[in-house]
Amino acid sequence: MSQSHTLKSPVLQSFIAGEWLGNQAGQALASPVNGETIYHTHAETIDFGRSLKFARTKGRASLMAMDFQSRASCLRDLGKHLLEYKESLYAISLLTGATRNDSWVDIEGGAGTLFAYASVGRRELPSGNLIHEDDAFPLGRDGQFFGTHILVPRQGVAVHINAFNFPIWGMLEKFAANFLAGMPCIVKPATSTSYLTEACVRLMQESGLLPEGSLQLIIGRTGDLLDRLDGQDVVTFTGSASTAAKLKVTPNIINNSIPFNAEADSLNCAILAPDVSVDSPEFDLFIKEVAREMTVKAGQKCTAIRRVLIPENQVQAVSERLTARLAKVSIGDPHLDTVRMGALASFEQKADVLAQLEELLKSSQVVYGHEDSFELLGKGSEKGAFVQPTLLLSNDPDAEGGAHDIEAFGPISTLMPYKNIDHAIALAARGKGSLVTTLVTQDPEIARKVVPALAAWHGRVHILNEASSKESTGHGSPLPMLKHGGPGRAGGGEELGGIRGVKHYMQRAAIQGSPTMLSAVTGEYVRGGETYESDVHPFRRYFEDLRIGESLLTHRRTVTETDIVNFGCLSGDHFYMHFDDIAARDSQFEQRIAHGYFVLSAAAGLFVSPGEGPVLANYGLDTLRFITPVPIGDTIRARLTCKRKIDQGKLSPKGEPQGVVVWDVQVTNQHDELVASYDILTLVKKQFD
Questions:
Q1: MaoC-like domain: which residues (predicted)?
Q2: Is the model's pTM score more than 0.85?
Q3: Catalytic amino acids?
C-alpha cells in the first residue's frame, strides 16, 4: 500500500447539486487488507432538499434537452473514458481487498454495461423521448378510434442504494438504464467501499460528458432523503434481504406508492445432475464453477453459490475434488500477483460472516476450511479481514433452517445430498427465491424437466455442459441483455434485461384517439391516419425532408400464371399450392395461388424508385403477414407510407451521415382487401451531419 493512502487518509466527498461537498473527517474506513485507516467519510450534513431540487430542475432539463439516441452516444463515450483511466480504478480497487481478477467484472464490466446500453439505445429506441410500445389497434368499427401504449420518462429522481461488493458495476448497471430513460439519479454506495465509487464518479464528472444534474453521489448516510421523495421518483436497493424489507416499508414510500426495486442477497444453488459421472467433463466443470464462486470476490457476490446440490452417491467424490481445488487457492494481500483470493470488504463483514458460519455449523459439518489459522501472503495481512474458504456438508438437507435460511456472505458453501432429481428440485426451492441457479447436465431431457421447475424460484437458470462451457460467462455473471433479479428472498425485483431495464424508469400510459391524433403523439404513422402525397417519390427525399405520413399509392399489377411459373423457377419453390391444380382445388383456397414472396417482390417493384437517390439500402423487414391469398388473375397495388424515423447518428461505409426510416407497406387486391402487410426498413442518406 502506498504511503499516500496510509498517511493522508483523505476525506471522501459527496457530489451534490453540481458541487463536491466534504472537508471535515467523519467515519474512518480501514483497509481490509491490513487494518490501516485509508479514508474518512465527510462529517458535513447533506441538504437533500437542495439535492432533489437540483436533480428535478437542472438534471431533468439537461437530460430532456437530449434524446434517446444522444444519451446512448453519451453512454458510449463515458464507457470509453472510464476504460482510458481504468488503471487508476484498479489501483484503488486493490484497497477493497479485491484481486485484479475480482475487479475486472466491477471496472471493465461496469464500462461494458455502459456500452451495452448505448447499443440498446441506438438499436432499439427512436429519436425523441417517447417510446411507442406497440402497434395501435382499432377500438371501433369505422377505423377512426384506436388505442395504444406509450412510455415517457418519469419526472422524478432515481435513488440507487447500492451494496459494497461491486462499487462501480453496481452503480453503472443502474445508472445506464435510468440515464438512457432520461431520468437523473442520486447514488448512495455502501460506505465501506464508497471510495472506489467516488473515484469513478470523479472520472465521469471530470470527463465533461455528464449532463448537469444527471448524477449525484452520497458518501455516508441517506438522512431524510427517502422521506422527501414523491410518486414520480424511483428507489432501487441492492443488499441484504433484511435491509430491503426495512426500507421497503418506509412510510413515505408506501404512502406515495413510490416504486421500490430490491435485489437482495439470495441462497443460490448449483445442481449436479444424476447423469453426470465422476469421469465426465461436466463433473470437472461443476467443481470449477463451485470453487470459483466460493473464492471470486472472496465469496462476496449476491449470485455466489451457497448451496451445492449433489447426488447422494457423489458426496465423497465431490468433497475430495473440491477440497483439493480449494487447498490450492492462495490467500492474502491482492497487491501480490501470486494471490488468488483477497480479503472481505471490511472487518464488520468478517465478523458477520464468521457469526453466520457458526450458525451453519449447528446443522452441518466441516469438509474443508474453518481453521484457527491458515497461510496468508503479504506483510501485515494477519491484521486483515480474511476468511478461509470453507466447505460444509449438511447433515440433514430436508430439515428446516440451516443453509436453506442462513447466508454467510463470504467464501462459504454447503454440500447438500439429494436422493433423485425431484428431490433436488425441491431442495432448490427451499431457498425461497434466488437470483440464479446452475444445472450441470449432459442430458437434454433432464434440462427439459428441471429448468421450468427451477424457473419458478430463480431469476436466471444457467445450464452448463461441455458444449456451452467454452463460451459460458458462468454462474455468477449477470449480463446486461438478461434480466437480473429473482423472486421471494431475492427481492422480487428486476434490473438490466436490455430495454426492459430502461422501461423501469418510464411511465406507461394507454392513449386513445383517432389515427391522426395518435400519429401526432407517437411520432409514428398509424394506419387510417392522415397521409401526405406529392409529385416527389418518397424515396427521392433525404432523411431530414421526409415527413411522418408521407405516402405513395402505386399503380396496379395483375398476377399471371407466367409470373408464378417464372418465380417458381427462379426461386426453386415448386410448392403444390402454386403448381398442382388438382391439389390446390382440394385445399382450403380451392385454386392455385401466388407465392407470398412473389407478392412481396412484386410490391417492391411497384413502390421502389429505381434511380440513384437518398435511399441507400434495404435494412430489414418486420411484422410480415400474408393476409389474403392472391390467385391467378388478381390485381394488386401497394401503399408505402413513412411510419417512423430513427436518427442513429450512423455513417455509411463511405462516411455519409444516414438514418433509418421505417415504411408501412399495405398490399391490397382489386377489392381493396389487404393481401400483405409489413414494415420495411431502409437506410436513408442525410443532407447534413
A1: 548-648
A2: yes
A3: 263, 302
